[in-house]
């Protein structure tokens, strides 16, 4: 199966008071599609663990062109897109009942040595996967992000049990929840469209405290950083445009 595909009805847990899909739910859907397709393609958890390797999401960009409403029938698709340097690329989209793309995304994954936690060249794994030439959900997506000036501290979070995943670090989708919680809820509820770019730079494990910093971007949007409290190391950067 070159392209993973599943159809579903947008559920109550994935909407906000506007009755529309949340950004956090998009990341949940994309994560599950990535895992499901990797399992189907033979590069899921068990074979990777046997090889002493693990998939780690390093960066992802998501563009929401229209936020579907509760109960809409949607089709989620995901597919590998080859490599770019050390990154294994994967694209996504969510389409409505008329096959119009509503949400588009591109992600860059690293393959880490499970013990040393160091990145490996992905070619040996990716060369066994479909390339899907020409099937480009988000050209130029998943960029590297630079530090922004004039960030102010917006709060902090201690990584708790509900944040930690199978790899014993804060799951990538939880950072999106943290980002959403730094924004005025009315801004998110009223947003008809949005784009989020995020780079995951360092692992956060259970009990660690992450300081959350933010600043407005020119136009309409926000820049974010998460910094490890004990030494100020940047653990993620993100930019949200609404």
Give a summary of the structure in a few sentences.
The protein has helices spanning 23-40, 45-50, 123-126, 172-181, 185-190; strands spanning 4-9, 53-64, 73-84, 87-95, 101-113, 119-120, 152-158, 194-200, 209-216, 221-228, 234-241. By secondary structure, the protein is an alpha+beta fold.
Describe this structure in words.
The chain is an alpha+beta fold and 242 residues long. The chain has two domains: 1-142, Hotdog Thioesterase (Thiol Ester Dehydrase, Chain A), CATH 3.10.129; 144-242, Hotdog Thioesterase (Thiol Ester Dehydrase, Chain A). It has five helices and eleven strands. The chain has helices spanning 23-40, 45-50, 123-126, 172-181, 185-190; strands at 4-9, 53-64, 73-84, 87-95, 101-113, 119-120, 152-158, 194-200, 209-216, 221-228, 234-241. The longest helix is centred in the first third of the chain and has 18 residues, at 23-40.
Secondary structure elements and their pairing?
Elements: E1 4-9, H1 23-40, H2 45-50, E2 53-64, E3 73-84, E4 87-95, E5 101-113, E6 119-120, H3 123-126, E7 152-158, H4 172-181, H5 185-190, E8 194-200, E9 209-216, E10 221-228, E11 234-241
């Amino acid at each position: 199966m070159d392209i993973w595909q599943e159809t579903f009805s947008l559920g109550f847990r994935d909407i906000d008071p506007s009755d529309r899909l949340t950004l956090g739910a998009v990341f949940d859907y994309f994560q599950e599609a990535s895992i499901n397709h990797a399992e189907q393609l033979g590069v899921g958890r068990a074979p990777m663990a046997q090889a002493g390797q693990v998939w780690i999401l390093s960066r992802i960009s998501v563009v929401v062109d229209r936020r579907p409403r509760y109960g809409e029938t949607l089709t989620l698709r995901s597919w590998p897109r080859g490599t770019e340097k050390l990154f294994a690329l994967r694209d996504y989209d969510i389409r409505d009942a008329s096959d119009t793309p509503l949400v588009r995304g591109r992600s860059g994954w690293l393959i880490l040595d499970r013990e040393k936690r160091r990145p490996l060249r992905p070619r040996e794994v990716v060369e066994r996967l479909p390339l899907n030439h020409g099937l480009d959900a988000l050209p130029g997506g998943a960029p590297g992000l630079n530090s922004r000036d004039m960030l102010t501290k917006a709060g902090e979070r201690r990584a708790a049990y509900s944040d930690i995943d199978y790899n014993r670090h804060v799951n990538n989708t939880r950072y999106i929840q943290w980002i959403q919680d730094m924004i005025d809820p009315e801004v998110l509820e009223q947003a008809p469209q949005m784009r989020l770019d995020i780079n995951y730079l360092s692992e956060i494990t259970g009990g660690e405290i992450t300081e959350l910093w933010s600043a407005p971007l020119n136009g309409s949007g926000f820049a974010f950083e998460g910094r490890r409290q004990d030494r100020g190391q940047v653990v993620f950067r993100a930019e949200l445009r609404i």
